[in-house]
Amino acid sequence: xxxxxxxxxxxxxxxxxxxxxxxxxxxxxxxxxxxxxxxxxxxxxxxxxxxxxxxxxxxxxxxxxxxxxxxxxxxxxxxxxxxxxxxxxxxxxxxxxxxxxxxxxxxxxxxxxxxxxxxxxxxxxxxxxxxxxxxxxxxxxxxxxxxxxxxxxxxxxxxxxxxxxxxxxxxxxxxxxxxxxxxxxxxxxxxxxxxxxxxxxxxxxxxxxxxxxxxxxxxxxxxxxxxxxxxxxxxxxxxxxxxxxxxxxxxxxxxxxxxxxxxxxxxxxxxxxxxxxxxxxxxxxxxxxxxxxxxxxxxxxxxxxxxxxxxxxxxxxxxxxxxxxxxxxxxxxxxxxxxxxxxxxxxxxxxxxxxxxxxxxxxxxxxxxxxxxxxxxxxxxxxxxxxxxxxxxxxxxxxxxxxxxxxxxxxxxxxxxxxxxxxxxxxxxxxxxxxxxxxxxxxxxxxxxxxxxxxxxxxxxxxxxxxxxxxxxxxxxxxxxxxxxxxxxxxxxxxxxxxxxxxxxxxxxxxxxxxxxxxxxxxxxxxxxxxxxxxxxxxxxxxxxxxxxxxxxxxxxxxxxxxxxxxxxxxxxxxxxxxxxxxxxxxxxxxxxxxxxxxxxxxxxxxxxxxxxxxxxxxxxxxxxxxxxxxxxxxxxxxxxxxxxxxxxxxxxxxxxxxxxxxxxxxxxxxxxxxxxxxxxxxxxxxxxxxxxxxxx
Length: 697
Ligand code: ADP
Ligand code: MG
What we know:
This protein is of the alpha+beta class. The chain folds into three domains: 4-155, Ubiquitin-like (UB roll) (Roll), CATH 3.10.20.70; 163-411 and 437-551, 2-Layer Sandwich (Creatine Kinase, Chain A, domain 2), CATH 3.30.590; 567-694, Up-down Bundle (Four Helix Bundle (Hemerythrin (Met), subunit A)). The strands form three sheets. Strands 10, 11, 12, 13, 14, 15, 16, 17 and 18 form a nine-stranded mixed beta sheet that branches. Strands 1, 2, 3, 6, 7, 8 and 9 form a seven-stranded mixed beta sheet that branches.
């Protein structure tokens, strides 16, 4: 293996490569575009495209693709080769500025939520020069944004970039007002920690539920689960270690800052955390990471499961979105410094975030809603569906002191009195102290922990950036004409904390009392996707997005429709898969086993009436009864799926029907199925068991 620094970013058309390969004037023009968002001249684009192509060909590429993030939940790509006929039957490799800057994929087969009729197929992708192009599997990948021909946004990238612009603009206004004249740009940074499962490919191939839906729809618990806590941070098995090593190498080549890897709580569960970067790059990189994880697993005879809940009874997988804001002058705005009580600038930004999370708690919940994540939120393994904020003891005490006009005594000062002369940094909160909070302050950033493992992180970050931008803009309006800025800022901080303290909760979010307490505080508890999504189109949310020019009203409506429809489709696929498994494999298997038991009992009886057959008979009776029940439930599920059509006129009703009726029957069917599994001979049971899958690597 090449040395890591040489390997790192070797497949990326990055800063260094651009500097080496672009004429000075072109490089400068491109930098202007990247840094100031200025439009790119076609003549410049032509030069960049040609240099990119030469570089890509050296890396073994024959094709290029505009890589984008439509609303399907996965990335999309269409590969075109560089070949161009040269007139005498030969070809040359060509790539023009026009091809670099703009692509025209057929948009008709991507979800649009009704904003673009299927006959209006045109859509286009535009190069996002702030995210580097890269070479992978013989193709040059160009990160792009995707919209319809008439300009409606059809992807996750465009609103993310818009939200980053918004928060930058508003934060700069406030910072300038507070006297930071050198701050001209603010960026949000994200470090997403990614959880995943690895199972053996041979077992995966036998589980049609995992193949079709990403999770097990049947499966009795293994004798051992995660109760011994012996997997978390445990020694990494050789085969997994080889996978992780290979994964790191592939990610590093793509310029992804893969940093930390360890075993997670559930057996077969692991985590990878990168070093944080700018939000849009972190988003691209997380999408790439998930893809490279899957491909690398295959090379090792493994399958990487990114579903939020592949196995019942053990933890599911999430993603922690570590989020912060920093200035072009290199300052992290969420760093409280040594004396947070004197750091009014920090407190003002904190107040804006507290207000934002309180007022738009529904949007944060919506941003992490998915059929898969519904299994986790509120299941005492992930943060609950109720959104609240954790500030930790020290910051919590400071906010209390501000609200109640009390003097704040920082822990740092207490330490000084005990004879330590160096003022320690404001203590970084050990996130282990409260792993139950959905939105926790962790020293110099917030960790939004409610994300599902397979989620594109664009959505929660669009919400975060936009809602904080909105609060900052309101703050600016309130402060801009003040005669005594310092006291106005202090008053605003106090007022905001006082009005929005209900969103702050430093206790145990898994406790039952919290649910009651949260209700008293008027916090929302949106348990499932349909319940959450219903709030997407609340007036205050539409106003937020429209005012901040993130989405038009139609675009929000479209996203709402897509989410609900998608949810219904996913549950529908799960139901159909269960029916298939039940009828084609489970019923025949149990029936065959009962027959063997019957044959055995009859044979014993034929031999002699003295030989006991009670074991066979008990099993025959038990399994036969369960089989009747199982078969009835299967029919019930089939009927429920057929009836779904009656509810399909309105997507909210449709999704709700799937949640309340179809999903409920699925649970019942599973319970009977799992109970039959525990009584059926392993020789007959048609699927690998939980034990084999979870402990088989
Ligand atoms: P903790 O132990 O508190 O979770 P870590 O240092 O392990 O903190 O960081 C966890 C994740 O948070 C990593 O992906 C890291 O890169 C990211 N992170 C650290 N600082 C920031 C920041 N300023 N903005 C965004 N993410 C950050
Ligand atoms: Mg963490």
